[in-house]
Write a structure and sequence with these properties.
The chain is of the alpha/beta class. It has six helices and 14 strands. Helix 6 links the parallel strand 12 and strand 13. Helix 3 (about 185-190) crosses helix 5 (about 220-230). It is globular, with a radius of gyration of 18 Å.
Length: about 270
Amino acid sequence: MKITFYGTRGSIPVPEPDFAQFGGNTPCVLITFSTGRIAILDAGTGIRRLGDDLLAASHEQYDNMIIGLSHTHWDHIQGFPFFKLANDPRRHITLAISGKGRITKDLESIFATQMQDDYFPVSLDNIGAKLTFWQPDITEYNHPRGINIVASKHNHPGGAYGYRITEGNKTLVYCTDVEHMDGIDPNVVALSRNADLLIHDAQYTTDELKEKRGWGHSSWEQAVEVAKQAKVKRLALFHHDPEHSDDFLLDQEMKCQRRFPIAFFAREGTEIMV
C-alpha cells in the first residue's frame, strides 16, 4: 500500500503562507493498493487536489471507488462537491461509514443538504457519477479483492470511527477525531495493534487539552502512548489545529521525535509506502 496525504488540517482550511509546509486543507488521505486500485479516507478540502491529480494521471478506476468517512463533520465532507471525478458519469463512487453503534442519520441526506441550492449551485442528483451510500452495521468486512477492513467507534461529539485496513501482510490504521478522556482508550490500542502505519489525531497540545475537554481530539503525547502500547511500526500525527503554524508544528514535531523517533507530523503531499 502507498499512503498519500492530501489534507492534514483539522476543523477549517487555512490557505495562508505560514501554514503551507504542513498544509492547509482539511482531511483527505489516498490509499493506493498493490493492484493499482485506490480508496479515499475522508472528503475534506484536500479531495479537490486529489481529483485533479487522478485526472492528470488518467486514472481509470470506474467500477467502484470507495470514499470511507470517519464521520460527517463538515471538515471531513466539505471538499466532495469539488471532487472532479464525481462529475464523471462513467464513475461509480461509494461513500461509506462502517461500524456498529451508528448514530449518523442517512448519509445521502447529509451530502444532499450541503449541496442544496442555498449552499452550492449543483445538486447531488445532478453531480454526474453514480453514487452509492453505504452504512453497514458491521465491525469487519472482507473485500473480494483481498482487503480486510475493521471498524471501531471511538469518542467524538456525534460519534466517529477508526479503520484498520489490511492488504496482504501490511496494515494501515486511520484514527482521527478521537478523544481519549480518562486514560488511553483500549479499543483504539486494540485497533492499532502492530500496524505498519498509524495515522492518529493530534490536534491539541497537552495544555490545550485541559481547556478543550469534550471537543473530541487528542494530543501528540496521547497518540505516542497509543503507538507504544500497540507496538506500531510508524506513527503519523494528523488533523493539525488551524491555529498551529508551520513553525509551531516543527517545534512540536522535534519534541515528539525526541520521545518517539518513528513518529512524524503529516504533511500534504507526503507519500508513505506501507
